[in-house]
Amino acid sequence: MTEQTLHGQLPIGRGLRGRCPRCGEGRLFQGFLSLRPTCEHCGLDYSFADSGDGPAVFVILIAGFIVVFAALITEIVYQPPYWLHAALWLPLILFVTLAPLRLIKGLLIALQYHHKAAEGRLDRRGEM
């Protein structure tokens, strides 16, 4: 049986829901973005998880496209004053950057576990 049929979930769904990448039951996050030390259900040690700057990069690129595109279209069509731009785009920037950050971090950690990704290590077999 595959992992999907054994547990009924794909790693993508587990990551997006913020659940343990192995069992899908325990919670992954302790706070907004801080990880728990271990899974409360299966005991998986989360010390392997290192998403680095990956989630932030994805969020910045996606959010930047959305906000800049919307601001340019609004400026071209309506030409509002600058204070209205600030009133429109500052809340949107907060929403499109903070809302998906936890989802993408959970997704990247679940995919890291699923694909057994780890830091690169040098193989020093030939050295004396």
SS strand fraction: under 5%
Q: Compute the number of structural domains.
A: 1
Largest sheet descriptor = none
Helix/strand order? HHHH
Mean pLDDT reading: 89
- Overall geometry comes to elongated
Can you count the beta strands?
0
End-to-end gap: 45 Å
* Tally of individual helices: 4
Which stretches are low in confidence, meaning pLDDT under 50 for 5 or more residues running? none
SSE-based structural type: mainly alpha
- What does the radius of gyration come to? 20 Å
Helical content class: 40-55%
Which properties best describe this structure?
128 residues, mainly alpha, 4 helices, 55% helix, 0% strand
Summed up, what is this model?
The model has no long low-confidence stretch (mean pLDDT 89). Helix 3 (54-78) runs antiparallel to helix 4 (82-114).
